């Protein structure tokens, strides 16, 4: 794929990933540096060729179908309209992948909205031997713990449609915070590397099933 950047040069890349913009008042725009850092890590470690900056895509937009991997985060309320839920379902059924990262405070809202998308499915905790934890990097104990909130273990939930995880929900983990520039939270580099490795696993899984 080739895109034009102004009139002076063109940048080549294989594909782009996106952050999901949603309604309801939650801060969908949180974690400004997380996806660029994850992209850089994946381009180095997985030899992907992802555009260095993510796009922003709305839940109900037809542009959603342009991205094999879409990331959603925030601390608060989320609302999907019926048409948005229908669009998101069609995207996920067609091979798309949604990673939802609870940035603390999203849980009670996102569970309700996901029922609009797949009323017949339940979020299930994925076993640690699931392929999503065993791509390039192995996570024998599941998700790494990046930030502490309620003294709970991190949980990785999936919506499984026809045998494929179409949505992965990281809870009590703050995975996206671990992708941020080091100076944002001053997390140890070892924690940041674990977060980036898990993020790379998610992206690798999404691409292998796209």
Q: Oligomeric form of this entry?
A: single chain
**CATH architecture, please?**
3-Layer(aba) Sandwich
**CATH-defined fold name:** Rossmann fold
Number of strands: 9
SSE sequence, one letter per element = EEEHEEHEHEEEHHH
* Top-tier CATH class: Alpha Beta
The CATH homology group name: Domain of unknown function DUF4159
What is the residue-averaged pLDDT? 92
Low-confidence stretches: 1-10
Number of domains: 1
- Beta-strand content bin: 15-25%
Secondary structure layout:
Blueprint: E1 2-5, E2 9-12, E3 18-21, H1 34-45, E4 55-58, E5 69-74, H2 82-93, E6 97-102, H3 107-117, E7 124-125, E8 155-161, E9 164-171, H4 175-179, H5 182-185, H6 189-208
Parallel strand pairs: 3-4, 3-5, 5-6, 6-9
Antiparallel strand pairs: 1-2, 7-8, 8-9
Helix pairs in contact: 1-6, 2-3
Quick rundown:
Helices cover 30% and strands 21% of the residues. It is α/β, with parallel strands linked by helices and 210 residues long.
Task: Kindly list the characteristics that best describe this protein.
210 residues; alpha/beta; Rossmann fold; seven-stranded mixed sheet; two-stranded antiparallel sheet; globular; disordered N terminus
Could you walk me through the main structural features you see in this protein, from its secondary elements to its overall organization?
- The chain has a seven-stranded mixed beta sheet. A two-stranded antiparallel sheet has the order 1-2.
- The protein is globular, with a radius of gyration of 16 Å.
- Residues 1-10 have low confidence and may be disordered.
- It has helices spanning 34-45, 82-93, 107-117, 175-179, 182-185, 189-208; strands at 2-5, 9-12, 18-21, 55-58, 69-74, 97-102, 124-125, 155-161, 164-171.
- Helix 1 (34-45) crosses helix 6 and helix 2 (82-93) crosses helix 3.
- The protein has one domain: Rossmann fold.
- It is an alpha/beta fold.
């Amino acid at each position: 794929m080739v895109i034009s950047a102004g009139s002076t040069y063109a940048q080549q890349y294989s594909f782009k990933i996106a952050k999901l913009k949603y309604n309801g008042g939650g801060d969908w725009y949180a974690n400004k540096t997380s996806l660029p850092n994850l992209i850089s890590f994946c381009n180095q470690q997985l030899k992907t060729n992802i555009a260095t900056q993510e796009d922003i895509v709305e839940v109900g937009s037809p542009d959603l179908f342009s991205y094999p991997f879409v990331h959603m985060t925030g601390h608060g309320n989320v609302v999907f309209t019926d048409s948005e839920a229908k669009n998101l379902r069609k995207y996920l059924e067609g091979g798309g992948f949604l990673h939802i990262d609870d940035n603390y405070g999203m849980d009670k809202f996102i569970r309700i909205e996901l029922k609009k998308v797949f009323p017949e499915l339940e979020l299930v905790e994925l076993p640690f031997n699931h392929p999503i934890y065993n791509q390039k990097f192995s996570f024998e104990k599941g998700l790494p713990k990046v930030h502490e909130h309620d003294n709970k273990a991190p949980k990785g939930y999936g919506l499984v449609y026809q045998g494929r995880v179409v949505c992965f929900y990281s809870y009590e983990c703050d995975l996206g915070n671990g992708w941020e520039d080091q100076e944002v939270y001053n997390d140890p580099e070892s924690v940041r590397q674990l977060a980036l490795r898990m993020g790379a696993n998610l992206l690798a899984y999404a691409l292998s099933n796209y």
